[in-house]
# Entry
Amino acid sequence: MLAAHRFLYFLVLLCTAGLLMPGKAFPLQIEDDQGRIIRLEQPATRIIPLYGAFTEMLFAIGAG
# Structure
C-alpha cells in the first residue's frame, strides 16, 4: 500500500509541476520506481487528489 501512496504522490507532483512550469518542454515522459512510463502530451489542466493530505499539499504550494 505504501508503494501506491508514493506513486500517487509522485503523480500529483508531476501534474503540479506541469501547471507551475508552463515553459517546460512537452511531451514529458517520466519512468517511476516500478518501471511504469508516465507520458504527458501537454501540461495538466486539473489535478484530482485521491488522498486528503495531497489536497493540503497542493494548496500549500499555491496550486489550489
In short: The chain has a mean pLDDT of 76. The beta strands are 28-31, 37-40. The two ends are 26 Å apart (CA to CA).
